[in-house]
């Protein structure tokens, strides 16, 4: 009985123990599952779905990669609000932090005369000091009142920042009213100029100074010019294409109307019709279009509008009835206020010398490129001669005026006014001539002013009257335009020689082979030559006095040829370069010392006189000087190397070093 009771008790305890273990296991499993589910749901609801939740008994394991440290901390905090924080094991990682991006450094600079405002962000390392230094430099001509609202940031200076800032301040120094925006590698300039000429000058100056690796956006505005008299002149010559000698309009619509009428009359070029102030009537473009159509119906001649005066000059030989019909139709078509003067000129002959004893009387003034003016032809009496020479000296200078006129008491009324108007027009040219006749004024020449033809047409129309018959045959030469800042031939020669003084061309000893170190100098020489495309230069080779004279001469010729050929290979026109050698004949230093011999071994550039075929010290003549470049300079493709003072084939370079090599 006792044994049975013992067995029963043992079984009861065993069952109780098993039940306890099973209950504990199921309880722990439930807690793990429920804790994992609740915490995972809470993390997902909080946007922390990157976190992974696992359990190990009562321990809650958080894993996964947090995007940053605050997100990791939020996950721990969120889980700790659901389960005991002591049960949480942090197995999370944090994503590697990204480097902090540097801010965008930029400046906005506003200038209104002496008042300057600067706002923006600059690098702390030298940024404020550089800005202050550049502002001080910009204020040398006019002290500036600077409002500085610039902040700094301690980050690396971005590439191109300092260069952009220096260029921007250089531009600001030239612009009294401007807004300049600066970024690393980019500058934006918005400004206002006082005139269109000033706008062109500023644009070219700023563009020329721009560093190669800086992006520039340039917008300079200018007010409309005031033109008085308001002038339009359209010419249909018998031996040429129709053209505008002057074209002033008051709006884009007016320009379109005028150009449409010109195209219908056979005009096919580009017209510089200036939108300007000073129009005498809103019907200006209508009057111009009707006048051009009338001129086309006549078959040729010249139409001039000067304020409200309309002048229609037919070509010589125009049929009289046709002329009368066109004039009547134009007179009826012109808007109110405009007054028409129509002239059918008789045939005239232009002698152009002022020396003819018979025929149409003439006065001729000739302006040379050097500035001298010769006055020839007929004047009424000594008083007129004195007035003309006095006016000439006022226009051209006392020492430049030469008079060789003769008296003629049969000259028509108004002759002095025509002569003085012609001289005034001639003074607007660089060189040329004016021929004055009783019924015709002819002006020919060269100018560096793109507006010269329009200005001269307006001047002659104003001073001679609307019905005046005149011809303006003016050629624009860009090399004479001061707004383009094209260097003179002498300035080009100076620049070429300066390049060679600063960085001497090197040759192999005793040979005419340019060493590789000379590539940079050749590139600089090519750039300088590109700025003077119409000027011819002689490349001179020189040696020291060591070695035989004939050998040194041949060596100098060969080296000059080598430089010429190298420059032609870089794209310089062959017609622009003449090679010559002088050997030891033109030393510039003592040949008894090594320093002197080194100085004498050189290459030089000299202006070449196309008229005499020799190098000269002064300015070489150009097309503006009256030379005929087409005749003087052969086509680049046809020109061969010119002869030298000694034939290179007869005197080959000595391969033995002579001491005359440029080293």
Your description of this structure?
This protein is an alpha/beta fold. It has 5 domains: 28-94, Helix Hairpins; 106-221, hypothetical protein tt1634; 231-343, hypothetical protein tt1634; 363-482, hypothetical protein tt1634; 489-632, 2-Layer Sandwich (60s Ribosomal Protein L30, Chain: A). It is 36% helix and 24% strand. It is built from 16 helices and 25 strands. The strands form 5 sheets. It has a 6-stranded mixed β-sheet with strand order 6-5-4-7-8-9, covered by helices on one side. It has a 6-stranded mixed β-sheet with strand order 12-11-10-13-14-15, sandwiched between helices. Strands 18-17-16-19-20-21 form a 6-stranded mixed β-sheet, covered by helices on one side. Helix 3 (127-138) packs parallel to helix 4 (161-174) and helix 9 (382-396) runs parallel beside helix 10 (415-426). The longest helix is centred in the N-terminal third of the chain and has 44 residues, at 2-45. It is elongated. The chain starts with a helix and ends in a 31-residue tail after the last helix. The relative contact order is 0.05.
Question: Strands, helices and their partners?
Answer:
Layout: H1 2-45, E1 52-56, E2 59-66, H2 69-80, E3 88-94, E4 106-112, E5 115-123, H3 127-138, E6 145-153, H4 161-174, E7 177-183, E8 186-192, H5 196-209, E9 215-221, E10 231-236, E11 243-249, H6 252-264, E12 274-275, H7 284-298, E13 301-306, E14 309-314, H8 320-333, E15 339-343, E16 363-367, E17 373-379, H9 382-396, E18 401-407, H10 415-426, E19 431-436, E20 441-447, H11 452-464, E21 470-476, H12 489-502, H13 519-530, E22 537-542, H14 549-569, E23 577-583, H15 594-600, E24 602-609, E25 614-615, H16 629-632
Helix pairs in contact: 3-4, 6-7, 7-8, 9-10, 10-11, 12-13
InterPro entries: Bact_OuterMem_StrucFunc, OmpA-like, OmpA-like_sf
Organism: Jannaschia helgolandensis
Region (Disordered): 612-663
């Amino acid at each position: 009985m006792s044994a049975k009771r013992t067995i029963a008790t043992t079984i009861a305890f065993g069952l109780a123990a098993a039940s306890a273990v099973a209950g504990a296991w199921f309880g722990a499993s439930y807690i793990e599952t429920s804790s994992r589910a609740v915490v995972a749901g809470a993390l997902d609801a909080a946007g922390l779905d990157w976190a992974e939740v696992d359990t190990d008994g009562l321990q809650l394991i958080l894993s996964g990669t947090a995007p940053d440290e605050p997100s990791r901390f939020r996950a721990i905090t969120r889980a700790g609000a659901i389960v005991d924080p002591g049960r949480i094991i942090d197995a999370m990682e944090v994503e590697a932090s990204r480097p902090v991006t540097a801010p965008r450094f930029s400046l906005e600079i506003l200038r209104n005369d002496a008042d300057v405002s600067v706002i923006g962000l600059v690098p702390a390392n030298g940024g404020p000091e550089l800005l202050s230094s550049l502002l001080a430099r910009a204020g040398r001509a006019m002290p500036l009142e600077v409002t500085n609202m610039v902040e700094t940031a301690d980050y690396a200076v971005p590439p191109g920042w300092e260069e952009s800032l220096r260029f921007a301040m250089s531009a600001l120094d030239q612009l009294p009213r401007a807004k300049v925006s600066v970024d690393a590698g980019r500058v934006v300039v918005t400004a206002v100029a006082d005139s269109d000429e000033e706008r062109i000058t500023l644009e070219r100056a700023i563009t020329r100074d721009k560093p190669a690796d800086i992006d520039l956006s340039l917008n300079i505005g200018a007010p409309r010019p005031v033109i008085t008299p308001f002038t339009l002149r359209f010419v249909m010559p018998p031996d040429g294409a129709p053209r505008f000698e002057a074209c002033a309009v008051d709006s884009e619509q007016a320009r379109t109307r005028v150009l449409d009428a010109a195209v219908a009359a056979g005009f096919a070029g580009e017209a510089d019709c200036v939108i300007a102030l000073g129009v005498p009537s809103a019907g200006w473009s209508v009057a111009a279009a009707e006048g051009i159509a009338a001129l086309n119906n006549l078959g040729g001649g010249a139409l001039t509008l000067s304020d409200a005066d309309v002048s229609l000059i037919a070509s010589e030989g125009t049929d009289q009835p046709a002329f009368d019909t066109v004039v009547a139709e134009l007179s009826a078509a012109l808007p109110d206020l405009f007054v028409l003067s129509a002239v059918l000129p008789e045939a005239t002959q232009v002698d152009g010398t002022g020396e003819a004893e018979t025929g149409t009387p003439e006065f001729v003034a000739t302006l040379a490129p050097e500035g001298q003016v010769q006055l020839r032809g007929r004047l009424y009496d000594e008083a007129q001669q004195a007035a003309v020479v006095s006016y000439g000296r006022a226009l051209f200078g006392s020492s430049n005026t030469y008079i060789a006129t003769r008296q003629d008491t049969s000259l028509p009324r108004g002759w002095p006014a025509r002569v003085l108007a012609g001289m005034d027009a001639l003074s607007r040219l660089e060189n040329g001539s004016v021929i004055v006749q009783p019924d015709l004024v002819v002006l020919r020449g060269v100018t560096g002013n793109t507006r010269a033809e329009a200005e001269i047409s307006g001047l002659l129309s104003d001073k001679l009257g609307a019905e005046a018959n005149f011809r303006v045959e003016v050629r624009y030469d860009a090399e004479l335009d001061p707004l383009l800042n094209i260097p003179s031939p002498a300035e080009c020669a100076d620049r070429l020689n300066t390049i060679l003084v600063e960085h001497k061309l090197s040759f192999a000893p005793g040979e005419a082979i340019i060493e590789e170190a000379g590539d940079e100098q050749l590139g600089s020489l090519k750039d300088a030559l590109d700025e003077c495309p119409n000027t011819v230069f002689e490349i001179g080779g020189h040696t020291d006095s060591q070695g035989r004279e004939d050998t040194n001469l041949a060596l100098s010729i060969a080296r000059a040829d080598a430089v010429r050929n190298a420059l032609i290979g870089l794209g310089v026109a062959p017609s622009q370069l003449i090679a010559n050698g002088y050997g030891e004949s033109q030393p510039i230093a003592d040949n008894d010392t090594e320093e002197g011999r080194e100085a004498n071994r050189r290459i030089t550039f000299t202006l070449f006189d196309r008229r005499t075929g020799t190098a000269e010290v002064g300015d070489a003549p150009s097309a503006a000087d009256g030379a005929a470049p087409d005749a003087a300079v052969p086509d680049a493709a046809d020109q061969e190397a010119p002869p030298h003072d000694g034939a290179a084939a007869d005197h080959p370079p000595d391969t033995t070093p002579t001491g005359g090599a440029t080293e």
